[in-house]
Automatic annotation (TrEMBL):
PANTHER family hit by this protein: ISOBUTYRYL-COA DEHYDROGENASE (PTHR43831), ISOBUTYRYL-COA DEHYDROGENASE, MITOCHONDRIAL (PTHR43831:SF1)
Enzyme class: oxidoreductase
Residues annotated as domain Acyl-CoA oxidase/dehydrogenase middle: 136-226
SUPFAM superfamilies for this protein: Acyl-CoA dehydrogenase C-terminal domain-like, Acyl-CoA dehydrogenase NM domain-like
Residues spanning the membrane: none
Domain Acyl-CoA dehydrogenase C-terminal: 260-378
Keywords of the record: Flavoprotein, Oxidoreductase
GO molecular function: flavin adenine dinucleotide binding; oxidoreductase activity, acting on the CH-CH group of donors
Name of this chain's protein: Acyl-CoA dehydrogenase family protein
CDD domains: ACAD
């Protein structure tokens, strides 16, 4: 069974938690220095997570009662944004860990205390990473409905878990796998099984060869009769109990952190673009490209889009931190706009730089590939717009709160 004890122990004294602007700026520079190579060979950035742990940033969202940083959403956003400006695949893995920690920090968290505390303590002590494994070959994303094919069978000693998961971001370094599955009971329950990564029967299929976020290690994982104690079925419910949709607070966290990630990619593209336009002086012009009014106008559009995204993310983070998150449908509109702004900002940069921007000698083409991944993350645009449209009609009919 897991080498990490699930028995409760008193939390350690709070360790270093340094999210100062100087530290975050240094991490951005350090991660950016290795980003190109990780992208080229698809290698996982293990060293980046050692650096994050050294500053107490892997456990930033862990409550202070368990030795973590107790970070607000606004603080977590700053951390993810700084990491994303350097190496966005690292930011994606960190975001997934933060979302697990946030869900376990909530007053209505359903996980048994021992399992919750083990995840927290390992993050503080060792920088242990966690992620939710939900997508399957047949099911696709569970956000669109359907029962998972991953099945847990009852045994005298607990459960035996078997299944196949796709897009397991961070699997080269994950310690904890929160696996979405169902029971084999006559009336199946659906929910989360906590699986320590080192258990026998877990096989990684190294299939991740993607256009963007190539260093995220988002491979497939196969579970072959993995033995779990009964208490590692940490949140099982009848399928109907999951139909209510995402919790507004948890959804706001997901939207803000993913938005910060892709906004960070766009800001890295902007920074490179401004340097390029200020230095590039074609002989026919006799001055830098930055002096051209049409170039200034295009850069002005980039500024407008990134300014709007900052305001949207700031507003949603403030609302969530104040305990008044909007509906999940409304939070989804933040993702729709922020990701559209990020993509358009990078596209404008490419239009201004031409072949230079598409050359692999420069980082802009990598930023373009990375920012396009924003369209894939749940919630996707069609789901966002459908939910927003339904909410508009419900409010017009007086069947939804204003």
């Amino acid at each position: 069974m897991s080498s990490v004890s699930l028995a409760y122990q008193a939390p350690p004294a709070r360790g270093l938690f340094d999210d100062s602007p100087a530290t975050l700026a240094a991490l951005t520079r350090r991660f950016a220095a290795g980003a190109e190579q990780h992208d080229r060979d698809g290698s996982f950035p293990f060293c980046n997570f050692l650096e994050l742990h050294r500053h107490g940033l892997v456990s930033a969202v862990v409550p202070t009662s368990h030795g973590g940083g107790g970070a607000s959403l606004a603080s977590a956003r700053r951390i993810v944004a700084a990491v994303a400006r350097g190496e966005p695949a690292t930011a994606l893995v960190l975001t997934m860990t933060y979302l697990i920690h946030r869900s376990l920090s909530r007053a209505d968290a359903r996980w048994p205390a021992a399992q919750r505390d083990a995840v927290f303590r390992s993050a503080v002590a060792d920088g242990a990473l966690a992620n939710a494994l939900r997508v399957e070959p047949a099911l696709g994303s569970p956000a669109r409905g359907g029962l998972p094919d991953t099945v847990a069978r009852r045994t005298p000693r607990g459960w035996r878990l078997s299944g196949h998961k796709l897009y397991t971001t961070g699997i080269p370094a994950l310690r904890w796998l929160a696996v979405w599955g169902r029971t084999d009971e006559p009336e199946p329950r659906v929910g989360v099984f906590l699986v320590p990564r080192e258990l026998p029967g877990i096989r990684v299929v190294e299939s991740w060869d993607h256009l963007g976020l190539r260093a995220s290690g988002s491979h497939e994982v196969v579970f072959e009769d993995v033995a779990l104690p009964p208490e590692n079925a940490v949140d099982l419910r009848p399928p109907a109990d999951w139909a209510a949709g995402p919790d507004p607070d948890q959804h706001a966290w997901m939207i803000v952190l993913l938005g910060a990630l892709y906004d960070g990619v766009a800001r890295s593209a902007r920074a490179w673009l401004l340097d390029f336009l200020s230095e590039r002086a074609p002989g026919s012009l006799g001055a830098p490209l930055a002096t051209l009014p049409r170039v200034q106008q295009a850069v002005g559009e980039i500024e407008a889009r990134l300014w709007a995204s900052d305001a949207l993310l700031d507003g949603l983070a403030r609302a969530a931190d104040a305990g008044t998150p909007p509906t999940a449908a409304e939070s989804g509109l933040v993702k729709f706009n922020v990701t559209a702004n990020a993509i358009r900002a990078v596209e404008l940069a490419l239009e201004l730089t031409g072949n230079h921007g598409l050359s692999r000698r420069n980082p802009l083409e990598r930023h373009h590939r990375d920012v396009l991944c924003s369209r894939i993350h749940t919630p996707q645009n069609d789901s966002i717009l459908l939910a927003a449209g339904r909410l508009a009609f419900e409010r017009t009919a007086g069947t939804a709160p204003p």
